[in-house]
Amino acid sequence: MAKNLLELNLSINDEVIGFVEKEPGKTEIESYGEVRLPKGAIKNGYIKEPTILLEKLTSILKSFKIRANTVRWVLNEQNAILREIEIQKADLEKLTVQEYVLSQVGKTIHFPFESPIFNHFIKVAKDDSIIVTLFILDEQMLQDYVDVFDRLKIKEMTYEIPALSLWRLYYVSDEKEEADMTGSIVAPSLVKRNENGEVEEEEEDDDDFYEEDLEDGLMIATVYDTLLSLTIFDKKFPVFSMMEDIEKPEYLYDTIDTYVSRISNYYKFNKNQGKKEVTKVVIYNFTTKVTDAMLNEEMNKRIVGVDFEVFDLGKKSKYYKRLLPTGCYIPLAASFYK
Asked: Is pLDDT above 90 for 193?
C-alpha cells in the first residue's frame, strides 16, 4: 500500500494510546497497537507530562515505521462539549454562523472554557431560523497537543469525539464490500487544523448516500471503568450528549440503566415533546471490569421498552488476522470517515 495514502488514527486517554494506520475508509490495516501511559502523564485528557507523551508517540512512529503526515485524533470524552442552538436568520444577514456565535459568547452563549474553540454544523434549516450543532473544546488543551504533534512533524490534524467514531463503526456493515465502505457514511468531524496551524471549517457534505437507512434517536453508550458517556444521534447529527462518573465498579449496571432511562425520557419529552424517542441503544464496552456477555446479561434485566445491543467489537476483526487490542477500536472507527 502506498505510504502517502495512509493516515494515522489516534486515541489518547489517561491510560492508553491506541493507534491504527490505514487508508481512510478501507478495511486493510497497515499497523496497529496500544501503548500504556504512566499514571499522571495525562489527567482528564489534559497533558501533564508532554515529554512522556512525545516519547511514547515517537516510539510508536519509529517502531512501526509510520510516516504520520496526516493524523486523525480522537479526543478524550471529557474534553469536548456538544451544544445545539437555534439562530434566527435575521441575525445572520451580515454575519456568518461562526461570526454570530463569536459575537454572542459571554452574552447569550456561554462556554465552560476560558479560551474556547469550536466548529459548527447546520442540522436543520427552517424558514426563519437554523438549528446548529456546536462542538466546543478548550483551545489551551488543544494547543498542548498541537505542540507535541508539531514536534513529530505532523502537517495536518483532524479532531473528533469518540461517539462520532463509534457511530460510524456501528453503521459500517460487515456485509458491505470494502469498496462500498468508502463514502458510504458521512458524519461531521470536530475541528480540522492545516499545516499552518490554522483551524479550517469542514465543508458541508451533500452526500446523503444511505441517508434513508440512518436512524433518529440512536443512542451510543460508551462504558469505561470510571465513566459513562451517552450521545444521541438524529441521522448523522449528534443532538445530545452527557457524561456521568461511575463511582464504584458495583454501581456500573445501575448507572447505565439509570442514565439510559433518564436521558431517553429527556430526549422524548423535553427535547421532542413526545414526537420522537430513542429507538436503539448501542453499548460499547471499554471496561476492564466486565465482559460483553456479563454486560449483555445484566442489561437484558434492566433496559426495557427499547432495543439495545452490546456491540461486538470482535466481529470487526474478521478482516484482520487476529483480534485487535481494545484500545485500537476507537481509532479504527475514526478511520471510516470517508
From this structure: no
